Protein backbone atom coordinates (compact mmCIF):
# COMPACT_ATOMS: atom_id res chain seq x y z
CA UNK A 1 0.00 0.00 0.00
CA UNK A 2 2.78 2.42 0.95
CA UNK A 3 4.51 1.66 -2.36
CA UNK A 4 1.42 2.82 -4.25
CA UNK A 5 1.38 6.04 -2.24
CA UNK A 6 5.02 6.70 -3.15
CA UNK A 7 4.22 6.14 -6.84
CA UNK A 8 1.29 8.56 -6.59
CA UNK A 9 3.57 11.18 -4.98
CA UNK A 10 6.10 10.76 -7.77
CA UNK A 11 3.36 11.27 -10.39
CA UNK A 12 2.15 14.41 -8.63
CA UNK A 13 5.69 15.80 -8.48
CA UNK A 14 6.26 15.15 -12.18
CA UNK A 15 2.98 16.81 -13.09
CA UNK A 16 3.86 19.75 -10.86
CA UNK A 17 7.32 20.07 -12.42
CA UNK A 18 5.88 19.88 -15.94
CA UNK A 19 3.33 22.60 -15.15
CA UNK A 20 6.02 24.76 -13.56
CA UNK A 21 8.30 24.27 -16.59
CA UNK A 22 5.48 25.37 -18.90
CA UNK A 23 4.93 28.50 -16.80
CA UNK A 24 8.63 29.43 -16.98
CA UNK A 25 8.84 28.69 -20.73
CA UNK A 26 5.75 30.83 -21.41
CA UNK A 27 7.30 33.63 -19.37
CA UNK A 28 10.43 33.43 -21.54
CA UNK A 29 8.39 33.59 -24.75
CA UNK A 30 6.55 36.75 -23.64
CA UNK A 31 9.79 38.22 -22.26
CA UNK A 32 11.54 37.90 -25.64
CA UNK A 33 8.60 39.57 -27.41
CA UNK A 34 8.29 42.31 -24.78
CA UNK A 35 12.01 43.16 -24.94
CA UNK A 36 11.91 43.33 -28.75
CA UNK A 37 8.91 45.68 -28.61
CA UNK A 38 9.97 47.89 -25.71
CA UNK A 39 13.50 48.34 -27.04
CA UNK A 40 12.31 49.11 -30.56
CA UNK A 41 14.31 46.30 -32.20
CA UNK A 42 11.40 45.97 -34.67
CA UNK A 43 8.74 48.56 -35.61
CA UNK A 44 5.70 48.82 -33.32
CA UNK A 45 3.38 47.94 -36.22
CA UNK A 46 5.02 44.47 -36.36
CA UNK A 47 3.43 43.56 -33.01
CA UNK A 48 -0.04 42.37 -32.02
CA UNK A 49 -1.67 42.86 -28.61
CA UNK A 50 -2.74 39.79 -26.61
CA UNK A 51 -4.04 39.41 -23.07
CA UNK A 52 -1.76 37.50 -20.68
CA UNK A 53 -1.04 37.68 -16.94
CA UNK A 54 -3.85 40.26 -16.68
CA UNK A 55 -1.82 42.60 -18.90
CA UNK A 56 -1.93 43.66 -22.54
CA UNK A 57 1.17 41.95 -23.95
CA UNK A 58 2.65 42.62 -27.39
CA UNK A 59 3.93 39.75 -29.52
CA UNK A 60 5.67 39.87 -32.88
CA UNK A 61 3.51 39.25 -35.96
CA UNK A 62 6.52 39.30 -38.33
CA UNK A 63 6.85 35.85 -39.91
CA UNK A 64 10.63 35.36 -39.58
CA UNK A 65 10.72 36.55 -35.97
CA UNK A 66 7.70 34.37 -35.09
CA UNK A 67 9.34 31.32 -36.71
CA UNK A 68 12.64 31.95 -34.87
CA UNK A 69 10.94 32.32 -31.48
CA UNK A 70 8.75 29.27 -32.15
CA UNK A 71 11.84 27.16 -32.92
CA UNK A 72 13.52 28.33 -29.72
CA UNK A 73 10.43 27.64 -27.61
CA UNK A 74 9.92 24.17 -29.09
CA UNK A 75 13.37 23.10 -27.90
CA UNK A 76 13.30 25.11 -24.68
CA UNK A 77 10.11 23.38 -23.54
CA UNK A 78 11.83 19.98 -23.83
CA UNK A 79 14.93 21.14 -21.97
CA UNK A 80 12.83 22.82 -19.25
CA UNK A 81 10.78 19.67 -18.54
CA UNK A 82 14.04 17.70 -18.33
CA UNK A 83 15.43 20.20 -15.83
CA UNK A 84 18.28 21.00 -18.23
CA UNK A 85 18.06 24.82 -18.44
CA UNK A 86 20.01 27.08 -16.10
CA UNK A 87 19.78 30.35 -18.01
CA UNK A 88 18.17 32.12 -20.96
CA UNK A 89 19.75 35.25 -22.43
CA UNK A 90 18.45 37.76 -24.99
CA UNK A 91 21.25 39.78 -26.60
CA UNK A 92 20.63 42.92 -28.67
CA UNK A 93 23.43 43.64 -31.15
CA UNK A 94 24.14 46.58 -33.45
CA UNK A 95 23.94 45.53 -37.11
CA UNK A 96 26.31 48.37 -38.04
CA UNK A 97 29.16 47.63 -35.60
CA UNK A 98 28.46 44.03 -34.48
CA UNK A 99 28.77 45.27 -30.89
CA UNK A 100 26.53 43.81 -28.17
CA UNK A 101 24.52 46.67 -26.69
CA UNK A 102 22.09 45.02 -24.27
CA UNK A 103 21.95 41.63 -22.57
CA UNK A 104 18.85 40.41 -20.74
CA UNK A 105 19.65 37.45 -18.53
CA UNK A 106 17.13 35.13 -16.86
CA UNK A 107 18.66 32.69 -14.35
CA UNK A 108 16.69 29.50 -13.67
CA UNK A 109 16.95 27.79 -10.29
CA UNK A 110 15.37 24.42 -9.55
CA UNK A 111 13.97 24.70 -6.03
CA UNK A 112 14.55 21.82 -3.66
CA UNK A 113 17.15 20.41 -6.06
CA UNK A 114 20.89 20.16 -5.48
CA UNK A 115 21.62 21.11 -9.11
CA UNK A 116 21.85 24.85 -8.60
CA UNK A 117 22.28 26.86 -11.77
CA UNK A 118 25.48 28.47 -10.51
CA UNK A 119 27.19 25.12 -9.92
CA UNK A 120 25.86 22.87 -12.65
CA UNK A 121 28.01 22.22 -15.68
CA UNK A 122 26.27 23.92 -18.57
CA UNK A 123 26.90 24.84 -22.16
CA UNK A 124 25.72 27.96 -23.96
CA UNK A 125 23.55 27.14 -26.93
CA UNK A 126 22.51 29.67 -29.52
CA UNK A 127 19.43 29.54 -31.71
CA UNK A 128 19.46 29.58 -35.49
CA UNK A 129 19.29 33.37 -35.72
CA UNK A 130 22.92 33.74 -34.60
CA UNK A 131 25.01 34.60 -37.64
CA UNK A 132 27.92 36.22 -35.83
CA UNK A 133 31.52 35.09 -35.55
CA UNK A 134 32.60 36.79 -32.37
CA UNK A 135 35.67 36.14 -30.28
CA UNK A 136 34.69 34.05 -27.22
CA UNK A 137 34.58 35.98 -23.97
CA UNK A 138 35.83 34.72 -20.62
CA UNK A 139 33.58 32.33 -18.69
CA UNK A 140 30.66 34.19 -17.23
CA UNK A 141 30.20 34.59 -13.51
CA UNK A 142 26.57 34.57 -12.50
CA UNK A 143 25.48 37.64 -10.48
CA UNK A 144 24.79 37.14 -6.78
CA UNK A 145 21.16 36.34 -6.12
CA UNK A 146 19.10 36.27 -2.98
CA UNK A 147 18.79 32.91 -1.25
CA UNK A 148 15.77 30.97 -2.43
CA UNK A 149 12.90 30.70 -0.03
CA UNK A 150 11.04 27.47 -0.69
CA UNK A 151 7.40 28.07 0.10
CA UNK A 152 4.30 25.93 -0.08
CA UNK A 153 2.44 25.64 -3.38
CA UNK A 154 1.68 29.08 -4.77
CA UNK A 155 -1.56 29.95 -6.46
CA UNK A 156 -1.60 30.85 -10.14
CA UNK A 157 -2.66 34.40 -9.19
CA UNK A 158 0.33 34.80 -6.85
CA UNK A 159 2.70 33.63 -9.61
CA UNK A 160 1.04 35.90 -12.19
CA UNK A 161 1.27 38.89 -9.82
CA UNK A 162 5.04 38.36 -9.54
CA UNK A 163 5.35 37.96 -13.33
CA UNK A 164 3.30 41.15 -13.83
CA UNK A 165 5.80 43.06 -11.69
CA UNK A 166 8.71 41.87 -13.89
CA UNK A 167 6.97 42.93 -17.12
CA UNK A 168 6.17 46.32 -15.60
CA UNK A 169 9.87 46.68 -14.78
CA UNK A 170 10.88 45.68 -18.32
CA UNK A 171 8.46 48.31 -19.66
CA UNK A 172 9.79 50.93 -17.22
CA UNK A 173 13.41 50.10 -18.13
CA UNK A 174 13.19 52.50 -21.09
CA UNK A 175 13.57 55.28 -18.52
CA UNK A 176 17.16 54.29 -17.67
CA UNK A 177 18.39 52.26 -20.67
CA UNK A 178 20.19 54.25 -23.38
CA UNK A 179 18.27 54.69 -26.63
CA UNK A 180 19.24 52.12 -29.25
CA UNK A 181 20.78 53.85 -32.27
CA UNK A 182 20.76 52.40 -35.77
CA UNK A 183 19.59 48.97 -36.87
CA UNK A 184 19.75 46.19 -34.30
CA UNK A 185 19.27 42.45 -34.30
CA UNK A 186 18.85 39.94 -31.48
CA UNK A 187 20.01 36.48 -30.50
CA UNK A 188 18.73 34.08 -27.87
CA UNK A 189 21.17 31.95 -25.89
CA UNK A 190 20.07 29.01 -23.76
CA UNK A 191 22.43 27.61 -21.14
CA UNK A 192 21.68 23.88 -21.14
CA UNK A 193 23.37 21.02 -19.27
CA UNK A 194 26.40 19.67 -21.10
CA UNK A 195 24.66 16.28 -21.56
CA UNK A 196 21.60 17.82 -23.26
CA UNK A 197 20.57 16.57 -26.68
CA UNK A 198 21.09 19.49 -29.06
CA UNK A 199 19.37 19.79 -32.47
CA UNK A 200 21.63 20.27 -35.50
CA UNK A 201 20.49 23.85 -36.10
CA UNK A 202 21.65 24.93 -32.65
CA UNK A 203 25.31 25.77 -32.15
CA UNK A 204 27.70 26.58 -29.32
CA UNK A 205 28.12 30.27 -28.61
CA UNK A 206 30.22 32.61 -26.53
CA UNK A 207 28.48 34.47 -23.69
CA UNK A 208 28.06 37.70 -25.71
CA UNK A 209 28.82 39.82 -22.66
CA UNK A 210 28.57 43.62 -22.63
CA UNK A 211 32.12 44.92 -22.25
CA UNK A 212 32.40 47.33 -19.29
CA UNK A 213 28.60 47.44 -19.10
CA UNK A 214 26.27 48.52 -16.33
CA UNK A 215 24.07 45.87 -14.67
CA UNK A 216 20.65 46.26 -13.09
CA UNK A 217 18.98 43.45 -11.15
CA UNK A 218 15.23 43.28 -11.70
CA UNK A 219 12.57 41.34 -9.82
CA UNK A 220 12.27 37.56 -9.54
CA UNK A 221 9.32 35.20 -9.66
CA UNK A 222 8.93 31.66 -8.41
CA UNK A 223 6.67 28.67 -8.84
CA UNK A 224 6.59 25.63 -6.58
CA UNK A 225 9.56 24.19 -8.52
CA UNK A 226 11.47 27.07 -10.10
CA UNK A 227 12.77 30.54 -9.35
CA UNK A 228 13.71 32.93 -12.16
CA UNK A 229 15.98 35.93 -11.53
CA UNK A 230 16.18 38.77 -14.07
CA UNK A 231 19.19 40.97 -14.86
CA UNK A 232 19.80 43.50 -17.64
CA UNK A 233 23.28 44.62 -18.72
CA UNK A 234 23.76 47.54 -21.07
CA UNK A 235 26.49 49.56 -22.72
CA UNK A 236 26.98 53.05 -21.37
CA UNK A 237 26.73 55.86 -23.90
CA UNK A 238 30.06 57.64 -24.33
Q: Can you describe what's shown?
A:
It is a single chain. The chain is α+β, with helices and mostly antiparallel strands and 238 residues long. It has one domain (2-234): Cell Cycle, Spindle Assembly Checkpoint Protein, Chain A (2-Layer Sandwich), CATH 3.30.900.10. The chain is 31% helix and 29% strand. It contains 3 helices and 9 strands. It has helices spanning 2-38, 63-81, 156-172; strands at residues 47-52, 55-60, 85-94, 100-110, 122-126, 184-193, 203-204, 214-222, 226-234. The strands form 2 sheets. Strands 7-5-6-3-4-9-8 form a 7-stranded antiparallel β-sheet, with helices on one face. α1 runs antiparallel to α2 (63-81) and α1 packs parallel to α3 (156-172). The longest helix has 37 residues, at 2-38.
Quick structural summary:
The protein has 238 residues and is an alpha+beta fold. Helix content is 31%, strand content 29%.
Amino acid sequence: MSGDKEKDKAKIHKLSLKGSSKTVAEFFEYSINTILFQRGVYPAEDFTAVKKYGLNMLVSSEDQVKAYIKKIMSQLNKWMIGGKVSKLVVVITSKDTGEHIERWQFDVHLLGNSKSSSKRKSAEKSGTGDKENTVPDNDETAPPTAAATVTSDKTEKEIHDEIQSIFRQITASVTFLPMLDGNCTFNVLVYADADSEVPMEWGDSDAKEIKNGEKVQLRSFSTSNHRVDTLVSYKLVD
